[in-house]
């Protein structure tokens, strides 16, 4: 079976409202359609790569290709789990968690997007909390880092709510112009202190060696 070669296909992270997992083909198509509907206010750009400004057909294809690309390139020293976020069985966004040389660094970073019509309901915070549970409780991470443009107030608010500490200002580019970035760091101790979302993990054990997390 395919899951024998890609055990991450059986990975599940659940919170009271959400489930994070790899989508089936029809669910991936629904995610692509959701992205076309809109992810953010067109007057702002939260991503360094402005992929949300692609024409609708290319934007949808990009969502699908990102999913396939990260899955095909999984290896212990460099990986990204591109997990779909489901609310009541319906895909509402994507929560990605990434790491390089995880066995050595024990650090993860993350990216995410949420369909515009699902925003303002606390889903963004809950899906990041689910990702952090996977990273710290599941994989044994020592820290998580995050970066957001200073104008991306929603993302910064999620980081602060979950206990991330500000970790300096960086310089990035957004739509061809300078954009300052707020860097954050979350230690294991701060995660434990601020965690408020219950989460469970299923299907992790077969994935550990693939993610460089087989040994402490």
Automatic annotation (TrEMBL):
GO terms for cellular component: cytoplasm. Residues 18-185 form the N-acetyltransferase domain. SUPFAM superfamilies: Acyl-CoA N-acyltransferases (Nat) (SSF55729). The lineage of its organism: Bacteria, Bacillati, Actinomycetota, Actinomycetes, Jiangellales. PANTHER family: RIBOSOMAL-PROTEIN-SERINE ACETYLTRANSFERASE. This is N-acetyltransferase. Keywords: Transferase. One of its GO terms (molecular function) is protein-N-terminal-alanine acetyltransferase activity.
């Amino acid at each position: 079976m395919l899951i024998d070669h890609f055990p991450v296909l059986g990975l599940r992270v659940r919170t009271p409202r959400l489930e994070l997992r790899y989508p089936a083909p029809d669910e991936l198509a629904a995610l692509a359609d959701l992205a076309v509907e809109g992810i953010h206010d067109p007057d702002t750009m939260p991503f360094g790569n402005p992929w949300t400004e692609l024409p609708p057909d290319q934007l949808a294809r990009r969502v699908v290709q990102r999913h396939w690309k990260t899955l095909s390139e999984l290896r212990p020293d460099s990986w990204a789990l591109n997990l779909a976020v489901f609310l009541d069985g319906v895909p509402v966004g994507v929560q990605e968690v990434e790491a390089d040389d995880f066995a050595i660094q024990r650090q993860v970073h993350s990216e995410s997007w949420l369909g515009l019509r699902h925003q303002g309901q606390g889903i963004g915070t809950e899906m990041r909390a689910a990702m952090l549970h996977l990273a710290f409780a599941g994989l044994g991470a020592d820290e998580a880092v995050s970066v957001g443009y200073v104008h991306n107030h929603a993302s910064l608010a999620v980081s602060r709510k979950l206990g991330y500490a500000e970790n300096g200002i960086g310089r990035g580019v957004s739509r061809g112009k300078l954009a300052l970035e707020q860097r954050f760091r979350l230690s294991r101790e701060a995660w434990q202190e601020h965690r408020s979302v219950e989460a469970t993990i299923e299907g992790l054990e077969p994935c550990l060696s693939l993610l460089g997390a087989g040994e402490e």
